[in-house]
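Agenda item 2: calcium ion complex prediction
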Amino acid sequence: MDARVLTAAVSHVGLIRASNQDSGYAGTHLFMVADGMGGHAGGDVASSLATQAVTAVADERFDSITVAQETLVEAVKNSAQELSDAVRSHPDLQGMGTTVSALIRYDDKVVIAHIGDSRIYLFRKKKLEQITTDHTFVQKLVETGRITAEEAIVHPRRNVLMRVLGDFDTNPDVDTVILETEPGDRWVLCSDGLCGYVSDDAVSQILRETTDAAEASALLVEAALDRGAPDNVTVVIAGVNETNVSAASRPILVGAAAEPLIFDTVTKRIPAIGGRFGSGTGLGEAETFATPDFLETIIAEDKERASRRRRRWAAYLAIPITLIAGFALWGYFWTQSQFYVGSDGNTVVIYRGVAGEVAGLNLNSVEQDTDIRVTQLPQYLQHAVENNIPVGSYNAALEVVSRIRNVSATQ
Ligand code: CA
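Presented output:
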C-alpha cells in the first residue's frame, strides 16, 4: 500500500463555533487528537500547547514499545505542566483544559495514551471497535447500569468530563495500553465533534467504502457537517502497512495547533473552573469539567431525573388502577341501590343488593324480614321466592311482599 494514502489529518471548525479549539497531528510514528476547552481563547491554547508538547518528544523511533509508552505517557502528563505555566503568565487562561488521545506505532504494536472524551477506534477486517473509554459523567452512568449507551447519546449532561488535562492538575490520570496491530488496520482518532454526532455505523460504512485515508477523513468530516456540526470536528487516520513508517514524508498538523499561538485574544474573562457549569441542554454545548461540587450537583440532578421517571411510571399505572377501583366502587354502589324479594330458607325476606357474591364480597343484606312462611305459599310462589324476585326499589319490594301476603292469606 502506498504510504501516501495511509495517513490523514483533517480539522474543521464546524457550523456553529466561532473558533477551532481542536488540534490534530499525523506524524511518522505518532498520531494524536486534542480537543481544547476553556472559553473564548483558552481551548485553542490548551490543545495547541498539549499537541506541541507531545509531538516535540514522542514522534520518534524508540528502542522498544515500553520506552515508547513511558515517553508518551510522560509527555502527556508534562503537557499539563505546560498548561499550568501558561496560566501563571496569563491568568485569564485559568481553567483551560484539553483532551488528548495519542497513539505511537512501533512495528506490530501500538501504544495509546488517552484522557478525556476524544476517541481512538480500530478498523480491522471491516469492523469498527472503540478502543478508548470516554472519561465522561454519562459513561460512568452507563458503566454502573444507570442508563443505556443510547440514552447517553442524548443525555443533557453528555458534555461533562470527569478527567481532562488542565492547569489545575499537574499529575493527571492518563489511560494507557499496548495493543497488537497488523497490516491493513486503520486507527481512527477523532474529537467528539465527530463521534458525538456521527454514529459508529456511519463511520464504519465510510471506512469500508473508502480506503484512501485523505478521502475517508474528508468524508467523515462531511458526515459531521451533514448533521449540523455543532462542534469542532477533527479526524486523524493512521493506516498500518508492512513497514515501520505509516506516514507521508511530512507530518500533518491541523486545527488550533496549526495556527500561531496567541495568548492576547482573550476578550472576556474565563470563569474559574468551579464556576463553569454548562446548562448542557443545547446542541454543540461546550465541554465542562466535573469539579467535586459540580459532580454533586449533577449526581443529584441524575437522581432527581430517575425519581421523576419513577413518578411518571407511578402516574401511568395509577390511571388504570384508579379506573378499575372507580368502576368497582361504582358497581358496588349500584348493587346497593337494588332490592329483591327472596327467602332466608324459612320466611320471605326483602334484601338490599343483588343475590350472590363477587370475589368473596357479599353483595346483599337483609333489609326487612317478614313473617310470611315460604311453606305457606303456593308452589309457584315458593319457587319464585327461592329464585329471588328482583325489583327496582324498596317500595316496589313492599308491593311485591304485600301481594305475596294476600296470596298466602287466601291459602
Ligand atoms: Ca469538542
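Discussion summary: Residues 339-410 form one domain.
Owner for follow-up: CH.
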